[in-house]
Amino acid sequence: MATTQTALAALPQTQSAPKRSTRFDLGLIAGIAIALASTIAGICSTGVSFTYFLQPTGVVIVLGGTLGVILVTTPRHAIRHSLRRVRELVTVPEVNRGDLIEEIVYYARAARRSGMFARMIGPSVSE
Q1: Cβ–Cβ < 8 Å for 5, 118
Q2: SS3 for 89?
Q3: What is the pLDDT of residues 32-90, one digit of tens each?
């Protein structure tokens, strides 16, 4: 009897990659809002003028040093992969729910016929 993995490996793969839309991920927006709010709250709690924290020299040192450390310690392929993943945060794939439901039902039937569910249910149950 075939296992579920071999049955699924024998199934045809999807034809094309999903299209992407330009809708933002809500987690990204919430994360940016929380980060900005907590930064502003921290600055306001010091009692120092807000312009004190907006020094170009400090920005260059922090951002330049951070970028340099990232480039030294991270392999190039990992940086490219990370940039692709960041791009996926702002673009969400369009999903055709009808096709997705058909695919799930197809895999469920294949698993029932020749996978572990076939052994549990037995040959007497028809589809």
Answers
A1: no
A2: helix
A3: 899 999 988 998 898 888 888 888 898 899 999 999 999 999 999 999 999 998 888 88
Instruction: Spell out the alpha helix ranges (H) of the chain.
Output: 4-9, 26-46, 56-73, 76-90, 97-114, 116-121
**pTM of the complete model:** 0.42
Question: Rounded to 10 degrees, what is the CA torsion of 45, 50, 53, 57?
Answer: -170
Question: Is-contact 16 78, C-beta < 8 A?
Answer: no
**Backbone CA torsion sign across 72, 74, 76, 82:** negative
Distance CA(96)–CA(62), nearest Å, equals: 44
